[in-house]
Amino acid sequence: MIGWRDVLDITLVAAILYRVFVMFRGTRAVQMLVGLAVLIGITAVARWLELRTLSWVLDDLWSFWVLALIVLFQPELRQALTRIGQGRLIQRLAGRSRAERAHIVDEVAGAIEVLAARRTGALVVIERTTGIRQYAELGVALDAVVSADLLVSLFQPTSPLHDGAVILQGDRIVAAACFLPLSRSLHVGRSLGTRHRAAIGITEEADAVAVAVSEETGGVSVAIEGHLEAFADVERARERLHEILGGEPVRSRPGMLTRGLRRLTSRAANRA
């Protein structure tokens, strides 16, 4: 007789296997899993046919299969362990207040609107619960309050820090001109450039959020959990960032982004 413990046991195993398959989908780990399945099949056939020498070789192989799996699936295992603590409850406990997050999103969106209007390429990475300091250390260290003006100036073609990504931690810009890992997913379109592949790549390694502006089209995209979302306008991207980061959009200031664009444009004209 099947009891509730058996049902719970089967459900948990099925859920874990499903999450493993989803995590491995579109990566090179799928090919390694196929190779692993082939070895298991060969082992079963060798034992059935009583091929002693082959069985002895394969048995020695399986004696250290745990260590081999850790080495082969190291990137995927690291990603899985990293995402254990990426629940919304943990993010809220470890994160900043909603008002602070909303302010950061508004500043980033204000800068992105200006850069998109000028068709200036940009890549902004917002750190969440998973630390990405190892990538920040590859760039130029900064320690500045997040502001639209500063973000726009960093990505100007004449700036020595425009090539690469800007990393945000909390309400601070910690580094610029950072090099990020490119996505290894087989589902990433060939039409995507290096900037967008880097945006996807960093969200595959951590739970960060990356905002990319296309230099060719001026389009705005948001990358999260290895997926890239394109938006027709900056306001929709801003709403998506509020949704992801848990900030509350400031609806009493509907023209804020447009006024920010005019303000930055007028400042540039006055300086010229």
**CA(first)-CA(last) distance:** 83 Å
The CATH class of the largest domain is identified as Alpha Beta
Overall mean pLDDT: 78
CATH H-level name of the largest domain... which superfamily? DNA integrity scanning protein, DisA, N-terminal domain
Total beta strands: 7
Share of residues in strands:
5-15%
Instruction: Round the Cα radius of gyration to an integer and report it.
Output: 24 Å
Structural class: alpha+beta
Helix content, binned percent: 40-55%
What letter string, H or E per element, gives the SSE order? HHHHHHHEHEHEEHEEEHH
CATH architectural type of the largest domain:
3-Layer(aba) Sandwich
Low-confidence stretches: 87-95, 250-259, 261-265, 268-272
Q: Sketch the major β-sheet.
A: 7 strands, mixed
Oligomer: single chain
Major sheet strand order: 2-4-3-1-5-6-7
The name of the CATH topology of the largest domain is YojJ-like (1
- What form results from the Cα inertia axes? elongated
Count of folded domains: 2
